[in-house]
Specification:
With about 270 residues, the protein is α/β, with parallel strands linked by helices. It folds into 2 domains: about 140 residues, 3-Layer(aba) Sandwich (D-Maltodextrin-Binding Protein, domain 2), CATH 3.40.190; about 120 residues, Periplasmic binding protein-like II (D-Maltodextrin-Binding Protein, domain 2), CATH 3.40.190.10. It has 10 helices and 12 strands. The strands form 2 sheets. Strands 1, 2, 3, 4, 6, 7, 8, 9, 11 and 12 form a 10-stranded mixed beta sheet that branches. It has a two-stranded parallel sheet with strand order 5-10. Helix 1 packs across helix 3. The longest helix has 23 residues.
Length: about 270
C-alpha cells in the first residue's frame, strides 16, 4: 500500500510540474510537450535537440515522471505525447493510440567487480523475489545480494515483472529507485548490487549479464536470441496536433531512427 501511495504522490508531483511549466513556457513558434518514461526521456531529449536544430523556432519540452505519469498526462491533455516503456494493457489500447518508436533490450546489470556473468530467468526470478540472498548460490563469490528495482508505475519495472517475475512479486527488501540513472549509480558503487535498466543506457561503467546464454546486444535483440525486450512507445489520447505530428514524423524518419540506433536502441522500422 505504501508503494502505491508513493506512486500516486510521484504522479501528482510530475503532473503539477507539467502545469507549472505549461504556464511558464513562452515560445514564438510551434511547441510540443512530452512526459513519461525515464527510460525514453534521454533518447527523446537527443531527438528533440536534433529536431529543433533542423526546425528553428520550434520547441520540444521533454520531462520524466514514469510511464504511468506519461499515460495520465496524455489522457488528461497535460502533454501532447506520453512516453511509455512497456506494452499497453488491453484496456489501455482502447484508450490510447500507441506509436512504436523503438525496441529496447532490458539489461540486467552488476558491478564490474562481480564475477557473475550469466544467469537464467529462474535465477533472476529467485534473486529479485528474495529467495537467493548470497552470490555463491548463483555461481559468484560468498557475499550478500542487493537487488535494485524500480518504483511502482515504472514501465521498466512493469516490463521486468512481465518478462522475468511472472506471478512472483519483487521482494520488499529490494531497494527501490526512481530512474535508470539512480539504478546505474547504485550498482556502479556497490559490488553486491544487481539491477535492471535500458540496454541503451548501460554504458561502460556496468557489466551486463548474459541471460539464458544470450548476451544483451542490439544484434541479439534483432535476431530474437535475447528475449528481455520491450517496446518504447509514444502515446496519444487522440489525433496528434500539427506540431506533435511533425516531431513524431521526424522520430520515425530514417534520421530519427538512425539516432536511436546510435544510442543503442533497435529501430522500430
Amino acid at each position: 500500500m505504501a508503494n502505491v501511495k508513493f506512486a500516486f504522490r510521484a504522479l501528482g508531483v510530475a503532473l503539477a510540474a507539467v502545469l507549472i511549466c505549461a504556464g511558464c513556457r513562452k515560445t514564438s513558434g510551434p511547441s510540443v510537450s512530452l512526459l513519461g518514461s525515464t527510460s525514453i526521456q534521454p533518447f527523446a531529449e537527443v531527438l528533440a535537440e536534433q529536431y529543433t536544430k533542423k526546425n528553428p523556432g520550434h520547441f520540444v519540452e521533454v520531462q520524466g515522471g514514469g510511464s504511468t505519469a506519461g499515460l495520465q498526462a496524455a489522457a488528461n491533455g497535460l502533454a501532447d505525447i506520453g512516453m511509455c516503456s512497456r506494452a499497453l494493457t488491453a484496456e489501455e489500447t482502447h484508450q490510447f493510440t500507441p506509436i512504436l518508436i523503438a525496441r529496447d533490450g532490458l539489461a540486467v546489470v552488476v558491478n564490474p567487480k562481480n564475477h557473475v556473468t550469466k544467469l537464467s530467468i529462474g535465477q533472476l526470478r529467485a534473486v529479485f523475489a528474495g529467495r537467493v540472498t548470497n552470490w555463491k548460490d548463483v555461481g559468484g563469490k560468498d557475499g550478500p545480494v542487493r537487488p535494485i528495482t524500480r518504483e511502482e508505475g515504472s514501465g521498466t519495472r512493469d516490463s521486468f515483472v512481465r518478462l522475468v517475475m511472472g506471478s512472483e512479486r519483487i521482494s520488499r527488501r529490494a531497494l527501490t529507485q526512481e530512474s535508470n540513472g539512480a539504478v546505474k549509480e547504485l550498482v556502479k558503487g556497490d559490488p553486491a548490487a544487481i539491477g535492471y535498466m535500458s540496454l541503451g543506457l548501460v554504458g561502460k561503467e556496468l557489466a551486463a549479464v548474459t541471460v539464458e546464454d544470450a548476451q544483451p546486444t542490439v544484434e541479439n535483440v534483432l535476431a530474437g536470441r535475447y528475449t528481455l525486450v520491450r517496446p518504447l512507445l509514444f502515446v496519444t489520447k487522440s489525433a496528434t496536433n500539427t506540431a506533435a505530428q511533425s516531431f513524431v514524423d521526424f522520430v520515425l524518419s530514417s534520421e530519427g531512427q538512425g539516432l536511436l540506433e546510435t544510442e543503442g536502441l533497435v529501430r522500430a522500422r
